[in-house]
Amino acid sequence: MIANTLTSASTKVLPLLGRSQSELTEWVVAQGQPSYRGKQLHDWLYNKGARSLEDITVFPKAWREEFAQNPTVEIGRSQIHLHKTTRDGTEKFLLKLADGEIVETVGIPTSKRLTVCVSTQVGCPMACDFCATGKGGFRRNLAKHEIIDQVLTVQEVMQQRVSHIVFMGMGEPLLNYENLVGAIAVINKDIGIGQRNITVSTVGIPNQIPRFAEEHLQVTLAVSLHAPTQEVRAQVIPSADRYPLIALMDDCREYVEITGRRISFEYTLLAGVNDSPEQAEELAYLIRGFQSHVNLIPYNTVSDADYKRPTERAIQAFVQVLEHYKVAVSVRRTRGLEADAACGQLRGQHEKALAK
Ligand code: SAH
Question: Helix, strand or coil for residue 335?
């Protein structure tokens, strides 16, 4: 199937992936086909993993051949460029897009779950100092079908239904707003993953958090805080200069008011930068009275960044302070570390190897 992938960078060839059943039905009818073929097409796109129209064997052969000769649409699947499995079962993929760009996706199996860590951009313009993707610069936004493809690819290769989605791959989701919201709708309605099982992670973009709240989705918003003060935050997150912590927290409060949903605050622990017990206390103070949950992420080493992962003792001391202040806290245990698990690392190393 994979070898069959035909993708074209031509703008005239439009992707079918990302369209709803009624949009697909409209399209088949416009092609002179009976409307029930819309439901078939939907099933082959989202459940059977068709990669080209020729794969759809329930379609008349003559019609399929006609398309192969002169395609005006394509399914819109990406190619699997690299696939690595780690000892703990995490599977990492580099996907090649129609224009040759490479994007990273991870499948993370846990007891009954299969979580996909999805990218929304090729690279990232936010340039957070400790992040491998941020170090690699920005190429472009992903199209809606390129976001959805990642979920289908993991489902196909791991032969298990995807149960959870985290938008924590490459890129800043709220900078690719329309395609993010469009992809969430398809992942929910057409692939069948519950909104409550979807998490969108953002470093915070001015005006976008209240805008996202107004979508009234049931997804979880995770905000990358990483520091309890503006000063420390601006040290590691360049965009914090233009969007100060106080404004971010106001927007988070507005989000909770509009949606009634709690926010998950992500906090990457960097030894000697933001991991002291005093900073844990400041963090507890910053988010007091807030419907939230803190997710601590011990730093994953990125080769050319100058940070260190805190010791287990320091991590536990940080947790204890937060618990003392009744903050709901968990520590994200990194999986797949040996396969360059940190955000953007696999792609970064792949590029370096190519440059040699
Ligand atoms: N742009 C989004 C998604 C980024 S990836 C955001 O900023 O939220 C998901 C999380 O992993 C973010 O909180 C990000 O800051 C964090 N992260 C990135 N690189 C990391 C590293 N090397 N170690 C630990 N956490 C990292």
Answer: coil
